[in-house]
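User: My collaborator sent over this chain with a note saying "see what the structure looks like." That's all I know about it. Can you take a look?
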Amino acid sequence: MDQQTYAFLNQPGVGFFSMIIIGIIAGWVAERITESNHGLLTNLLIGVAGAFVGGELASLANIPVFGFFRTLIAAIVGAILLLWLWRAVRSR
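Assistant: Without extra context I'll predict from the sequence alone. Here is the result:
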């Protein structure tokens, strides 16, 4: 696995299985907030992608993201943004 893939799957202070749990929780919370209806796998994918997006946004704002709870918060914010953007694109 190359370094970029490893960095994507492993946020600082969060292991692979913790990232899966974070993805599921973040996807589910984003699903509830945006009043969407997805399955478990979609929630996982949205949550993990949201963790990446939220982590990148946090780094742009110079906010450190490490550990379970900070990564979870970043993932929730990122997942909400992804679902909002998806709806905006699909409605056109």
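A starting point for your reply to your collaborator: The chain is about 75% helix and 0% strand.
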